[in-house]
Amino acid sequence: MSLKEYVLSIENLTVSFDGFKAVDDVSLYLELGEVHVIIGPNGAGKTTLLDLICGKTKPTEGSIQFGKHELTTMAEQHIVQKGVGRKFQTPSIYPALSVYENLEVSYPRGRGVWGALAFQSDEKLENRIEEVAKMIYLEDWLDVQGDLLSHGQKQWLEIGMLLMSDPLLLMLDEPVAGMSVDERNKTADLLGRICKDRSVLVIEHDMKFTRDIAHRVTVLHQGKLLAEGTMDDIESNEKVIEVYLGH
Ligand code: ADP
User: In which domain of life is the source organism classified (predicted)?
Assistant: First the structure.
């Protein structure tokens, strides 16, 4: 496959903080339709790698190509507009607004610079809210206030809020932390549906969930890429067992 066919191409990415390399010469490629999971011990550089992709942190060396866009030096808000959505571990919704309103305010319409992503009419907005609410198991909860949802529902709502702007790349930080087994299974199913027409990059510690969702896995250790491959490759990799899975 040529590099042009990747949604995301990260090449030799390094970021140093006062000489300490939090991410050290990491390359990673993401195809359309792929769920790619990043694992590794605490301090491995997983969060910093996502910070680099979304523009929160700028690399010292290397490049980040997203479709035809060079993200390496692009400002954070422009990266969002190009179609990169990120969800942090703690759900961040509007607690006083209903599910419907949370989705509505996340709709890109009327935000000027969002232009290219803007939907055309109220009918399209209604349709999109309905479609997204159904996708995230909240179609019967549209009138319910955000803070009355369960922890898992809040996580789904935040994913739904990102989906309102139809990102091509969705980045999620430990999306099933604190969820029940049922909610976790539903989240795996949700990600399987979401990735049909986009790519998903997930930081995860839960190996069972990783096995359920990952097409490919990247293992980071001390900022460096330790291994990359399918879950079967990763689980049988001696270096990975030694530094991560064996603990
Ligand atoms: P992980 O998400 O895998 O637990 P992080 O990406 O949060 O790891 O952190 C990797 C390393 O980089 C840690 O040692 C952390 O302390 C360090 N680090 C991250 N951001 C900064 C920063 N802004 N300044 C200095 N050190 C940082």
Answer: Bacteria
